[in-house]
Design a protein that fits this description.
52% of the residues lie in helices and 16% in strands. It is an alpha+beta fold and 455 residues long. The strands form three sheets. Strands 2-1-5-4-3 form a five-stranded antiparallel beta sheet. The chain has a five-stranded mixed beta sheet with strand order 7-9-10-12-11. Strand 9 (370-376) and strand 10 (380-386) form a beta hairpin. The longest helix has 54 residues, at 210-263. The relative contact order is 0.06. Mean pLDDT is 78; it is low at 410-416.
Amino acid sequence: MSRPTLRRRLTMLTAGMVAIAVVGLSLGVWLLLRIQLYDEVESSVREKVARMTHRMDPMKLATIPVWIRPDIDTLFGVVSRQGVTQRPGFQRERLPVGPVDIAIAKRQQRDSVRKVTVGDTDYLMLTVRGETGQAIQIARDLTETDQTLQRFAVVLVAADAVVVVLTVSLGYALTRRGLRSVESVRRAAEHVAQTQDLTAAVPVARRDPAEMASVARSVNAMLTALATSQDAQRQLVDDAGHELATPLTSLRTNIELLLRAEKHPERVLAAEDRRKLLEDLRAQIGELTTLTEEVVELARDQGAHEEHTELDLASVLDAAVSRARARTPDVPFEVSSEPVTVHGKRAALERALLNLLDNAAKFSPDGERVEVWLRPGENTAAIGVADRGPGVSEEELDRVFERFHRSADARALPGSGLGLSIVAQIVAAHDGSTWLTHREGGGTVAHIELPLADR
């Protein structure tokens, strides 16, 4: 069973609301007309009672002459205190008598107006007190009045049906026009799903409602973000493939040398050469392992399963420094920090700081300390990591955060060229910034700025 479309739902909802309103209004109008017509009938009946009692004795009702007989649609009757009734001689029908009529004859009640049926005809009957201890009944035929109400009801039903049909047609047309933007979003989504073309944008017309224009812009922003992410993933795969090729080629070459020596016993490798080959294999496997781990780390959304919380950045820095000291016990770290509260992911920020500390320790000469500081600013928290390494040339300062980029001085050292890229990615995810500067006296200073938690 297919799901109803939004257009159909809105049309039916509009038609239903209009139908309820129109039917309610029509019913109210009909009831008001009925009350008015019945009031007019009651007024005419009371007027007839007043004329009749003024001209004759009600006890002589049976002898009413033809000339005083009011209308052919009117019935008369007189009720005694004992419940005995009289009717005119020219009138075949007898009006019904109830307890209320007897109570009026006994002067226990003033009057009564009610609808009664005589034969197959409905009447509006008025019962009032007589002058000499009896109740006078006079009833007016309601046939014409009820027919008028029925004809008016038919007109109202027909008018209601026309209004509902017009409302459905107009509502469908307006809904169709109003949902053009939704249709554009749907077509764009289907196009992306079928073609994987993330550059397809949802058109935003000037006449589109503000809400739909906002939805279209949000979808376009999402497509742009997906396209950017897809390009970044492709670039990462290309770069990773290029960087993995070098250690894999070296591994394959060394393994082939070992296999060739095994196949030709007469070409026995010297023990020293064999040891060097095995050490190279171990180093290349370690390099390959490190590179693979960092590629995976870079491809993964940093702290994807961790929520942003308010945290003390000083405690995060202390944890990162403790891990760096454990990794490089021969490098002294001098830390100066103040309590600073930021909003972010603790594990991801600790990883970024640890990468900076490891990078500084790797380039620091023996005996030189790495200086680390954390200071609160007006709107940001500032972190600095300074070393006394060989430094970075001016033209490479802006490239050190690129994936797999390694300066000429760093190529002889172990590493993948991904550490600073991971730092940049984590800091950007926290709406911060990172950069390198030259240190006075030699070396490099890595800077990170993060917005404070109350910003």
